[in-house]
Each structure stands twice: as C-alpha cells, then as structure tokens.
C-alpha cells in the first residue's frame, strides 16, 4: 500500500511543479515579510520540518533490504519523486535562513541532515524507507534553492530598510 502523499503526487504530478514555481515566485516576498517577525519565522521553520521528518523517517509497511542505491539523476519536472524531494527542503531552508540570517550555513546543515536521513534509512530497513543518493542530491538542490531564496529575501529587506531610512533622513 502506497502512502497517501505518494498516491496524490502520482495521480497529480503537476503538484510538484506548482510547489516549485510557487516557492520561487513567493519565497523571497514571504521571507522579506518575515524578516521583522523572528518569532513567527522560527515557529514556521519548526513547522516546516515536520513534513521532512514524517516523509523521510516515518515507518512504512514495505520491507526492504539493507543498503543504499547509488544513482545520480537530476530532477526534471516529470520526475515526481525527485522534484518532491527538492520541494521538501525549500521551505525549511528558506525559513531557517531568514530566521538566522545565515542561509549558507543553513544550506550546509540541510545537506548534512539529508545525508544523515539517508544513512538512517540505509541502516534501519525496518522503517521500509529506501536510501538513495538521488534523494540526497534532490534534497540538497532544494536546500540550495531555499538558501538562494532566503538570501534574496534578506537582500530585499536590506534594500527596503535602507530606502526607508534614506527617505526618513530627507524629511
């Protein structure tokens, strides 16, 4: 039996593309709006980690052999699972990057966390989760995108704050 989210994504593959496009289009603006709201940003960042944990570490009914599949496929819009793995890491990295003001550090931590998740999946076959280097690569690409969006939001915030202070100085 397939998990519900997998079934939904297979039946509606366009959802992953919409999620990716929405992240790119709205991410910098949402991040910019959240810069002055650290408490809300931290809360949303914590909430955005829940899907990562559930979708990568919650046990399934499958039984798998121990091991990890080494493959290196770049996600394409038709590859639902790979794009879903990209989209999964965008919100937490964007939000944590804005919350900390250090998107590059968050990116490195997210890539390491994805590697750790794959290691747990490889060493705990009772979870029924498959370990794949493709998953790590897709998660890391999502983290790169999330960090770029966070950096954009922080730069936008600096620009608008600077413009406001220059306008205030003139009056």
From TrEMBL:
Keywords annotated in UniProt: Membrane, Transmembrane, Transmembrane helix
InterPro entries: VanZ-like
Record's keyword annotation contains Transmembrane: yes
Protein name, UniProt field: VanZ-like domain-containing protein
Annotated organism of origin: Nocardioides lentus
Transmembrane segments: 12-35, 42-60, 72-97, 104-124, 136-156
Lineage, top ranks: Bacteria, Bacillati, Actinomycetota, Actinomycetes, Propionibacteriales
Pfam families hit by this protein: VanZ
Domain VanZ-like: residue ranges: 80-151
